[in-house]
Amino acid sequence: MATLRLFASIREIAGTSSLEVDANNVSDAITEACAQFGDDFAALVSSCRIWVNGNPAEPTDSVTAQDEIALLPPVSGGSVNHDSMHAQHTGLHIAILSLHTSPLAQPGTGDSGGMNVYIREVASALAHRGSTCTIYVRKSDPELVDEVELESGVHIVQIEAGEYELEKEELYDIVDVFTDRVMKDLQKRKPVDIIHANYWLSGAVGHKLKHQLNIPLVTTFHTLGETKKKSGFPEPSERLQAETEIIGCSDVVVANSENEQEQLCHLYGANTDRVEIVPLGVEQALFSPGNPNAAKDALGLPTGPILLFIGRLQSLKGVDVAISTLQAMDHENATLVIVGGASGQEGSFYESEIRNLADNLPVAKKVVFIPPQPHHILSTYYRAADIVIVPSRSESFGLVALEAAACGVPVVASSVGGLQNFIEDGKTGFLIEGWDADKYAQVVDYLLSNPFKSTEIAMNAVDKAQTYTWGQTAGRLQEIYQSVLSKTLVECR
After folding, report:
1. In the list 112, 342, 449, 458, which could disulfide-bond 313, CB 3.0-4.6 Å?
2. Other residues' Cβ atoms within 10 Å of the Cβ of residue 190
């Protein structure tokens, strides 16, 4: 029998997270569920997204006894009262700033990564709760339209500022131009209640807009210059100075983890009372356990152990450590799958280095380079993996680790940043001190040789990942927005 998986508010109505159904297609499965769970359940089904085995599906799609059908309500992971099908609306208008990258860009390309996913998912969840989100990004291509409606309540405005092909390192020079043009656009729209800046470049813009509009500034940095500096990756002094000023002026700084909160306070002297921890979420209907053999077959991967790395090809993410781990492993027929791309001259040079490293591996050990994939495709790669390796040298949260955990795949990660908070060492994954490939290989070999332990880790990880949802992230942000609106604006120190 096929399995119907239920999430968030529709799970609450049903009183269960899954149902075994005897069905030939998606529609039959949903009809059976509606008959069992009643009118409230049926009323919400029409607004749900439907997935089969992690891929978007239609009611007419056929299913077999091995298939998993997922129903995802409009607000992922949100909690609603059974007497009401809608979350409480706030009616806020939020200007979300993302100068250097767009949520329309594919993660893993250029400077796109977890932040793109964060902005897209948070804006969507906020809109489902009644807010209006206007996302401001820099136009990077003359062919792009000026404005895109991502969905009802979420608009992306692409601002002309500087040459289209500017590198990220050059963007600080166009902050004033970007700010002026965002201000001009905002004057045409309904009044903005909150500015939410993402990354330090956007924080510099938000700092200026706060004083022009006299409204609260909320900032999420995603990465911190001082933290990268301590990890051996020097950052320009203008970034470090700007971050200090932004923290001093922000009404709230959002930290993705307890570790990031500590860094903000100890490295920048941030006021603890103005730093709020808001973890990231995961799309539970998309990232969930599945059939690993079917995933391997779908991707054309070999039958031996699969080690997976997902992320940009840069030293900060530790791709070289992943390849060296494969080389140091005892398992001879293992394959490392690397999904991601490089950007800029430095990225191209690093990619050449890691490809040379891969070419010098023993014949039985292979590295497969896969270009960046659409976010919804990544669940198949996770499910195909035996272990996901996250050897980052700096990480504010670790979205890849969360998505892997949600898919029931053990994670072996570096003991840095938010990874230390999300992964419970030895219970939901393994944390490695430093970047000695032999240490990573030892843990990877141990998991591959102990399937019962690997399964135990995977099950614990799934349980923990289910407590992280984008609905909860957006709900916590709304509480922060409402709180700062009731207070006097913070003055620059």
Report:
1. 342
2. 9
pLDDT digits (tens, 9 = 90+) for 290-345: 999 999 999 999 989 999 999 989 899 999 999 999 999 999 899 999 999 887 77
Among candidate residues 213, 219, 212, the one with its CA nearest the CA of residue 249: 219
pLDDT of the residue at 436: 97
The Cα 159–Cα 139 span in angstroms is: 5
44 and 130 both lie in a single domain: no
Decide if 83 is inside a domain. Answer: no
Considering the domain architecture, whether residues 448 and 302 belong to the same structural domain is answered as yes
**Tens of pLDDT, residues 52-68:** 875 678 899 999 988 88
Distance CA 424, CA 402 (A): 12
Q: Tell me, what CATH number does 25's domain have?
A: 3.10.20.30
Degrees (nearest 5) of the Cα angle 254, 258, 263?
Answer: 75
Q: How many domains does one find in the chain?
A: 3
Predicted TM-score (pTM) of the model is: 0.80
- Is residue 202 predicted with pLDDT exceeding 50? yes
- 348 and 307, same structural domain? yes
| Residue 88 predicted with pLDDT over 70 | no
CATH number, domain of 312, equals 3.40.50.2000
- Cβ atoms of residues 280 and 402 within 8 Å: yes
